[in-house]
User: What shape does this take?
Amino acid sequence: MTSVLAMKANRPVKWRWTREEEFLCSSTRAPWHMEIADAVTKDGWILGRKMLTLHDSGAYARFSPYGLTKHSFHHTGAYSIPNLHFDGYVVFTNRVPTTAMRGFGVTSVSFAVETHMSRIADVLGLDPIEIRLKNANRIGDTSPNGAAYTDPSTVPTLQTIAEAIGHELPADYRTMTNEPRSGDLLPEHLVAQVGSTEGH
Assistant: This one.
């Protein structure tokens, strides 16, 4: 509506709810319940992930099914994990209807995944950035729905973060790139995970 009004008026337009309208017509950000369980080697390779996510949509679905779909696409985060099991449910409750807000489910699942990654590092006594770099998406790795990545930014992003916070990385992690996996970065469990980037 605001976009149409802005086009007609040729001016910026702001939509403002009254407090009553907010409760009668609007919707809230959805609450999520997420459970993540990973199979991880002692040296930090993630072999598999099982996830359950429950989306409280309130009285109506609205964008909830779409948000849940985004959870399934993004529940590996920025990491290559070859064995996946995902169960997701949109649950109708007696609450105010909920909907997606700036992220459509990706924001919440990303927070859960990164929190989980830090817990894995803590339990195994590993460096939290190094374990992320080891499992980070690289060119040719495939997403949960089978698309091959052509230019993933996980590796340079993590290196930039490490530098910004003064976190000293070993040389092999400091010089990593997002180039296709090979050598020690292509363990047996990830061989089938690497696809072709042609046509993507």
